[in-house]
Amino acid sequence: MSTGKKGFPELLDDAIDNPAFELLGGYHLFLRRLLIPVVLAILFLFINDLIGNLIISAFITGLFLGPIMNFERYLAVIKQRK
């Protein structure tokens, strides 16, 4: 009787066999999970230092989220075409 939920070994196998994770020489996971949040945090600190208002800084940083994610997706598409 299967509940449809995958266990950890099945999820790990799916991640290893997924060709999307081999983009950018294997650094695609690194970019998505570590580098993008760090870039957003540095951007927030820079904007907060310039403006001095926490709410406005958070709003402007949130506006940068879409372009940063689209740039990352663009890099992945370029690498897949090669």
Structure description:
This protein has 82 residues and is mainly α. Helices cover 76% and strands 0% of the residues. Helix 2 runs antiparallel to helix 3. The protein is elongated and about 45 Å long. It starts with 7 loop residues before the first helix and ends with a helix. The mean pLDDT is 78.
Topology at a glance:
Layout: H1 8-17, H2 28-51, H3 54-81
Helix pairs in contact: 2-3
What distinguishing features does this structure have?
82 residues, mainly alpha, 0% strand, elongated
Short summary:
By secondary structure, this protein is mainly α. It is built from 3 helices and no strands. Helix 2 runs antiparallel to helix 3.
Which band does the percent of strand residues land in?
under 5%
β-strand number: 0
Mean pLDDT: 78
- What spatial form do the alpha-carbon principal axes imply? elongated
Order of helix and strand elements from N to C terminus: HHH
Number of helices: 3
Terminus-to-terminus distance:
44 Å
What class do helices, strands and sheet pairing give?
A: mainly alpha
Biggest pleated-sheet summary: none
Radius of gyration: 18 Å
Low-confidence stretches: none
**Share in helix:** over 70%
